[in-house]
Amino acid sequence: MSNRSPTDTPSYFHQPSKARWLIVIMFCVVIILEYSTPPPYVFGYLYIGAVLLADSRLSRVNRIQVTAIAVSLTLLNLVIPGVEPLNLATVANRLIAVMALIVTSWLSNRNRQFEQAIAQQRLKLQTQEYLNHVREDFASTLTHDLRTPLLGAIETLTAFQQEKFGAVTAAQRRVLEIMTRSHQASLQLVETLLDVYRNDTEGLHLQRKPVDLRTLADEAIAMLTELAAARRVHLRFRCGDSDFRQSFWVNGDALQLRRVFVNLLENGINHAVRGGKVEIVITNTDIHHLVKVIDNGQGITSDELPLLFERFYQGHGDRQARGSGLGLYLTRQIIEAHDGKIWAENSSSQGAVLVFCLPTLVSAASASPLT
Q1: Which of 79, 80, 89, 229 keeps 20 to 30 A from 348, CA to CA?
Q2: Residue 87 burial by Cβ neighbours in a 10 Å radius (0-12, 13-18, 19+)
């Protein structure tokens, strides 16, 4: 229970009272000036100070009351004290002063409404930013904490497969292999999620050096050959319209760009029909290399095209396997970090085409000794 006495009110409760006294003093000063001088001398404009003070410190009703009193006193001075006859110029000056008071009151009220709206919007944005920060921090912490037990489970299953805890039958070995693949898939998802959130908050740190995209494409195909065979999908690499193999050098991070090829190939395998194929086609110009990953699946609807590389978006088409919706988003992060662009389009025949372009290495000759 608070020990504050009833008389210990906060200072902001006294602010309206102070404002009212200031307004009364302003009115008294202006009234003295108004009614001690001839009517042609218009001091009603000075009531504007009281109107502005009422708008900033008092309620809307009080502001209207102050404005009405100021207008009344300004017009009343036309007949009080009545020592001089009225003329058109004096009446016009008074009416102009009245209009100035009304317009000032209206504009002040509008300005106050705008300030309140801006303050509310700023508060909403701050709240949204805080919630986003909490969500990102929670997801990052959760994925980081999940990684350790998954690694431990995989190591334990590997030890069982190596018969470190005793003999393993053929049936048990098949079960252990299924469990291991399942845990490895979960670990890959956790690591992808962790990479996505780390890239969003800290940015993607690249280890750049001359890299041949052809080599990375070959490595990605080798990594996914078993998966493609299980799905009965044929993988193929082409250099444009020619089967002649050439190099496509860029200044990039080999590890990250290899992940791009793997993600795009895996996406193509998941979308391709059984007995179909997924192709990697690389062409080049003077300023960039263009990489296309083509599948013969159902294609992409017009509604999906702008959302395909968004976080957690999985699409609605038929797939042989459902993912997390993070692979293509991570791919976009990597490509954009390399100053490239990535997009999707439909094939002229059947299927989808995922395309990215990267700047060509300025001096390809300097890269050749690394081959």
Answers
A1: 229
A2: exposed
In the structure encoding, which two tokens stand for residue 346, read together? Answer: 């439909």
Of how many residues is the chain composed?
Answer: 371
User: DSSP state, 78?
Assistant: T
| Separation of alpha carbons 97 and 124, rounded Å | 40
188 Cβ contact list (under 8 Å, min separation 6): none
51: CB partners within 8 A, 6+ apart: 63, 66, 67, 70, 101, 104, 105, 108
Query: What amino acid is encoded at 202 in this protein?
Result: E
Q: Pairing relation of β-strands 288-295 and 234-238? A: unpaired
CATH 3.30.565.10 domain extents, the chain: 209-370
**Residue range 275-296, pLDDT digits in tens:** 899 999 999 888 999 999 999 8
Q: Domain 209-370's class?
A: alpha beta
Q: How far apart are the first and last CA of the chain?
A: 77
DSSP state of 205: P
- Using a cut of 0.90, tell me whether the model's pTM lies above it: no
127: tokens are: 């709240």
User: Among residues 253, 249, 257, 280, which one has the least CA distance to residue 367?
Assistant: 249
